[in-house]
Amino acid sequence: MNNTITIAWREFRAYFLSPIAYVYLTAFLVAVNWLFFRGFFIIGKADMRIFFEMMPWIFLFLVPAVTMGKWAEERRQGTLETLMTLPVSDSHVVLGKFLAGLWLVASALALTWPAAITVWFVGNLDWGPVIGGYAGALLLGGSCLALGLCVSSLTRSQIVAFVGGVAAIFVLLIVGSPLVIGGAGTPLTRLLGYSSLGTHFVSISRGVIDSRDVLYYLSFMGFFLFLNLVITKSKARG
Amino acid sequence: MIHVEHLRKLFGDVRAVDGISFEVARGEVVGLLGPNGAGKTTTMRVLTGYLRSDEGTVSVDGIPVGDDSVEARRRIGYLPENAPIYDDMEVCEYLGYVGRLRGMRGAKLREAIAEMVQTCGLAEVAGRTTGKLSKGFRQRAGLAAAMIHRPPILILDEPTSGLDPNQISEIRELIRNIGKQRTVVLSTHILQEVEATCQRAIIINSGKLVGHGTVEELKRRSQSKSAYVVTVGAARDRISDALKALGGVSFGEWLCDDTSPRQRLSLTSEDGADRAEEIFKWAVEQGLTLTELSRTGASLEQVFKELTQNR
């Protein structure tokens, strides 16, 4: 566990040593606040539903920006060889990289506090759904991260990792939407609906935390982190 | 200390390493020698637990190197080719990171970093970002990171490639010093490096072991006869004529262009015996001025050429 933290801390600091973290946080905060307040004053309701509803679409572009370099860049620079010949098990490396990304996403979410405070000042904000929404957004962000990292581990090009990450997240976001499954209740559409990142976020964005959704996101992360480990073992260690 | 048996590693259809076996004893400095693409890097990558082998066994200090070879990796310090290090970290920070992942903490880690900065001559760049270092300092920072935990075994992949002559001799000196207490395996395609730093050489070519032994043993085993380089102050035609009178020595090749007033050429002793005296007397008898007469002997270079080209 110590090794995981050491790796995660270095990777997290690396975001701030390059412009990535600053560009990322600025882009995230500008986009989120602008989109939220634009709708907020029109609808005129003191909740943050539209704030959380747009999270999947924000993460769609911003999470691959976080994950694209994580493996691709190490491969290209050759530092992966140094890292993987240290007495650290591969799963610790995978987990460390994931945690670093999660901390960055969590920091980004935490920095949106002025939006919540504003709503609280303006109207009568119910904090329950807001806290639930934040927790759900972190789960969604973590899932996108695990998926994006997995894509990054397949290539040594950051661009390919980014575009591939966006595509993978996009497919898993829309696969359960009525537009794709057509609303018919066959077992296949139910399966598609269940496997979609978007479907499980619907109730979360309303502030309802269902244990099934939490379980879904946790197993989603677990699955893709495991897949990442398998890819790393077979691809890097040839 | 290091035990490799029938090691085989394939990349698709390419046999990068094809059944290599060798052993390295404690405290030895061994050079892994071979032309580019011979399989040196792949062999080292398997030794350090980076790559999995397809066949054969590798063990380090009695511990098999295989899947999740964390235990074996603890005993090894590894400097990969081109010393890959994180460009965004400061030198000391990087050493600290590697040290921490090697399980070092607190005062012990600080001492180790200070010692490595001293040993590897990194004092003037200790606080600089590694991405801004010159190649020589980068290589030294990589070496420092590889040795931070005082490993009994050091594996260095082309430690002097891309360095200038001064840096090369510094790194070689460093390796010689380290080699007094540790087992070192280094790969290179520069032969002087092996002669300068290693007690023993292992020569591989297209994935196979083609020769091993001490540098002297390898030279002795060579089929090359004694060779001489001679510079004579006469025209080429005249020398060619005079050479007919020289017994026991055969002409090798011209080593200069044919219009130059002094001709440089190589000669080989036919039975391997020393013929320097005969060559000198011959020149005097023929009225030729000798300005150079040097014996090249069987150099490691010739041995290397024989071993890696004839097969």
If you had to describe this structure to a student in words, what would you say it looks like?
The complex is a heterodimer of chains A (238) and B (311). Helix content of chain A is 82%, strand content 0%. Chain A has 238 residues and is an all-alpha fold. The radius of gyration of chain A is 18 Å and the shape is globular. Chain A starts with a helix and ends with a helix. Chain B is of the alpha/beta class and 311 residues long. In chain B, strands 6-7-8-3-9-10 form a six-stranded mixed sheet, sandwiched between helices. Chain B has a four-stranded antiparallel sheet with strand order 2-1-4-5, with helices on one face. A four-stranded antiparallel sheet of chain B has the order 12-13-11-14. In chain B, helix 3 (91-101) runs parallel beside helix 5 (135-147). The mean pLDDT of chain B is 86. At the A-B interface, helix 1 and helix 5 of A face helix 2 and helix 3 of B.
**Adjacency order of strands in the biggest sheet of chain B:** 6-7-8-3-9-10
What characterizes the major β-sheet of chain B? Answer: 6 strands, mixed
Distance between the termini of chain A: 26 Å
Chain-averaged pLDDT of chain B: 86
How many beta-strand segments of chain B? Answer: 14
> Spans of chain B with pLDDT under 50 lasting ≥5 residues?
none
Percent range for helical residues of chain B?
25-40%
The low-confidence parts of chain A are none
- How much of the polypeptide of chain A forms β-strand, as a percent range? under 5%
User: C-alpha Rg of chain A, in Å?
Assistant: 18 Å
Number of strand elements of chain A: 0
Average predicted local confidence, pLDDT of chain A = 89
Quaternary state of the chains: heterodimer
Globular, elongated, flat, extended or rod-shaped: what is the shape of chain A?
A: globular
Helix content of chain A: over 70%
Radius of gyration of chain B: 24 Å
Q: What is the general shape of chain B?
A: elongated
Q: Provide the number of structural domains of chain A.
A: 1
